[in-house]
Amino acid sequence: MHCSSPKMVCETKIVADEHDAIPGTKKESMMWSPAASGAALSPAEAKDVRRDAVFIREFERGDQEEVRRIFYEGIMERIPNTAFRGLRQQPKTQFLYALLTVMCFYVTKSVTLTCCAPLILMGARYYYSRKVIHSYLDCALHTDMADIEAYYMKPTGSCFWVAVLDGRVVGIVAAQGREDDNTVELRRMSVDSRYRGKGIAKALGRRVLEFAVRNNYAAVVLGTTAVKLAAHKLYESLGFRRTGRSEDYRLPGMSRSALERLFFQIRYSRYRLQLREE
Fold it and tell me: Domain N-acetyltransferase, which positions (predicted)?
């Protein structure tokens, strides 16, 4: 299996309404709370804010295991999403599956087999989604996610952050600078499923935007295969605009066999946030 330098495939489930700027610089830790506002808080509310406070800081070597766990679990969630939800984004594939079902009845004249055909097709989609996503995970876990310090912390213009709640890593995001077009790519954003709904993903996204501004990048870009609308709304709420879309994207690790092409399709969207004119 050939595993090239992995493209960012980013998915998150969080959409928040907090709009304050993120303080701090690249080398600082940042404390952010979903309840932050200009209004005074009661003692009970202040206690809740302290309990729910999320620190966003740079990656440390001891975070490696938890970071890989969050990344792995986030990607594994895409297996059913891609197999089933993703089919709604593929009208041509829907038509093809309907045609195959009709052909099944025409050839077999069996109502039972015809009724089973959609179930068989969905089972095949799940199998190939699992196969492809496992191959993608293998690529990612043996490249940048195998040595985060080498890929993100040491190179100039790149960084990796973790969100920490009650001493536990609950979210991750990376920024990778690209000198050829003076942009920074937002990568590997994911939030632990147990801590979603607190606006952590939006805070992580803003950390990348702040990093890009302070390092004089012209724009922030990202690519995503996210199926759920919430992820796309998150990027748009941060100021990103969609610049392109591919209906048949090839993930790292895909073999592109005939059966794989029949039962696995994924939409890839490109986003860009322009920070300044060149």
Answer: 119-265
Contacts of 177 by beta carbon, 8 Å cutoff, 6+ apart: 155, 156, 157, 158, 183, 184, 185, 215, 217
- Integer angstrom CA distances of residue 76 from 26, 93, 249: 30, 23, 18
Three-class DSSP category at 272: strand
Neighbours of 30 (CB within 10 A): 19
Pick from 162, 157, 172: nearest CA to 212 = 157
CA–CA gap between residue 237 and residue 268 (Å, rounded): 19
Structure tokens at 15: 């959409």
> Which residues, 6 or more positions from 111, have their beta carbon under 8 angstroms from its beta carbon?
105
What does the block give as tokens for 133? Answer: 């996503």
- Residue 190 φ then ψ, to 5°: -160, 145
* pTM, full prediction: 0.78
Closest CA to 196 of 84, 20, 73: 73
Distance CA 194, CA 66 (A): 14
Domains of the chain from N-terminus onward: 1-15+53-278 (3.40.630.30)
Percent of the chain with pLDDT over 70: 81
For residue 108, pLDDT beyond 80: yes
pLDDT in tens, 212-226: 999 999 999 999 998
Dist. CA 77–CA 63, nearest whole Å: 22
